[in-house]
Specification:
530 residues, alpha/beta, Rossmann fold, 5-stranded parallel beta sheet, 26% strand, globular, AMP-dep_synth/lig_dom, ANL_N_sf, AMP-dependent ligase, ligase
């Protein structure tokens, strides 16, 4: 089983069924598969080598999906890159990857022209609706429409032309390189095989009970592992994807969910914070008649957001909390919605096919109730980081994948996380988990989002500082701190609190703690110059 078989199998079952809805585009499985076949044939004709890297730099769209499956059909390695990259971020990735082909759109032409495209092996650039003039001696430039209109020669005695590409790869071959966000260091390219992704997608389809009747709203980018997982799982069951790239205007998302009879919605914690406080979700509660489940992953979500979500969503809509990592092809645990109220602070149990252990510093499994590092094993776990054996050795060993998360397991087998192994802040002799302080700030019900960082301090070593997105424009920092004081001991109270319109985030919606810290550092430097 290969990743592109998800598309091919659903095409055989539902050739005329709607597969993708994006703005004015409404494409069937047959149309997606035919375009992907033609792109694959074009790539093979361009001498794209088996195992060669093909970069995708596009927003979520019909064309992105065609590019993704077309690359895999051709035996290539799909490398989706963040749409937030600038030339100084793109250049080292291209030098490291040495792609043979880049597939992009007009939106990123200026970025590409400002970048160094003179890298080994790169010979083809495919752009959807190019707008700029291109003069590039080492590259052949093609319109995306040209590449997906390529007529491959017929294959004799083969009634199923999609099978013509299968001999180019197998389940052990590399399929994707997905870069981590890099918020805590240099981005690392996580290598995932066909077998990794297929195993994880099959498991997700099983525990979420996905079906061809499901209609999934996608607001997360496909270059993010959770977004890619939504694509593969829905295509695996023959469902429909509704792509919406306008989450900055959440009212449009709610309206489209109603219009398209969406059954599934997925997001990271900030997605739900903004739906609760910056969208008409509550007033449209009775109109979301088809929404059967919302799922959350991408980091810790505060209890206050979970309880508010439960109160705001229709009673019949299930809430599924999940936990995972790029290194796990997306997913490691899930909290069955039936346990939501009883185990609201838990990330649940291991998904089918995954084994999770809580290990101490010596690699021994700890008893229930004791803390240790969460270590995962299973067919979904990465083979390592692209061109980085040292980083690979730090997280992969005989025990499995070391997540870096500290947690414990209760007597019923549910796992609870206590934060990152490397994320504790030492303030005045105390070790503080910033997650606990952030949860308290949100529990005041006066904040939409909060991020706590440790700012260098001569006396304390570090002092707790918080960036907060206030719920109302007339909110005062003193009011938040006063309510927070009833929830936290004095030594865990932030020494300063600064309001911002939005927290700095990576392109996948996760809070960028490095940039949050920069906000305070820049202020200190500015003050020292005055």
């Amino acid at each position: 089983m290969l990743i592109h078989h998800f598309l091919e199998n659903s095409t055989k079952r539902f050739p005329d069924k709607l597969a993708v809805i994006h703005e004015k585009t409404r494409a069937t499985y047959g149309q997606v598969n035919a375009a992907a076949d033609q792109l694959a044939a074009f790539l093979v004709n361009r001498s794209a080598l088996k195992g060669g890297r093909v970069v995708i730099l596009m927003e979520n769209s019909f064309e992105y999906i065609v590019a993704y499956y077309g690359i895999l059909k051709a035996g290539g390695v799909a490398v989706p890159l963040s749409t937030d990259l600038k030339p100084d971020g793109l250049n080292p990735l291209l030098a490291e990857l040495e792609p043979t082909v880049i597939i992009s759109s007009a939106r990123f032409e200026r970025l590409l022209q400002a970048s160094d495209l003179n890298v080994p092996n790169l010979n083809t650039l495919i752009i959807q609706n190019p707008k700029l003039k291109w003069v590039c001696d080492n590259l052949s430039i093609f319109n995306f429409q040209q590449a997906t209109s390529y007529k491959q020669p017929p294959i004799q005695n083969n009634p199923q032309p999609t099978n013509q590409f299968n001999q180019r790869t197998n389940e052990t071959n590399l399929a994707n390189i997905i870069y981590t966000s890099g918020s805590t260091g240099t981005p690392k390219g996580v290598m995932l095989t066909h077998g990794n992704i297929v195993a994880n997608a099959d498991s997700i389809c099983q525990y979420l009970q996905l079906a061809d009747s499901d209609i999934q709203m996608v607001v997360l980018p496909f270059f993010y592992v959770m977004g890619q997982s939504l694509l593969n799982t829905i295509f695996a069951v023959g469902g429909t994807l509704v792509l919406n790239n306008k989450f900055a205007f959440p009212a449009t998302v709610i309206n489209q969910m109603i219009e398209e009879k969406v059954t599934l919605f997925s997001g990271v914690p900030s997605t739900y914070a903004y739906l609760l406080h910056r969208s008409p979700l509550a007033t449209n509660k009775k109109r979301l008649t088809n929404l059967r489940m919302v799922t959350q992953a991408g980091g810790h979500m505060a209890r206050s957001i979970k309880t508010a979500l439960r109160e705001t969503l229709p009673a019949r809509t299930q809430i599924c909390i999940m936990y995972g990592a790029t290194e796990a092809s997306a997913r490691l645990t899930w909290l069955d919605p039936h346990w939501f109220d009883q185990k609201i602070d838990s990330i649940g149990r291991a998904i089918p096919g995954v084994i999770l252990k809580i290990l101490d510093a010596n690699g021994a499994e700890v008893p229930s109730g004791e803390k240790g590092e969460v270590v995962a094993s299973g067919p979904n776990i990465t083979r390592g980081y692209w061109m980085d054996p040292q980083a690979t050795a730090r997280v992969l060993d005989d025990h499995g994948y070391h997540t870096g998360d500290i947690g414990w397991r209760d007597e019923e087998g549910f796992i609870f996380l206590e934060g990152r192994k490397d994320n504790l802040l030492k303030v005045g002799g105390h070790r503080i988990n910033p997650q606990e302080v952030e949860d308290a700030l949100l529990a005041t019900e006066l904040a939409v989002e909060a991020a706590v960082v440790g700012v260098a301090d001569e006396l304390l070593g570090k002092r707790l500082s918080a960036l907060v997105v206030p719920l109302n424009g007339d909110a005062a920092p003193e009011a938040i701190l006063e309510k927070c004081a009833a929830l936290l001991p004095k030594y865990k109270m932030p020494s300063e609190l600064r309001f911002v319109r939005a927290l700095p985030k990576n392109a996948n919606g996760k809070v960028d703690r490095g940039r949050c810290l920069d906000v305070f550092t820049a202020e200190v430097q500015r003050t020292s110059r005055l």
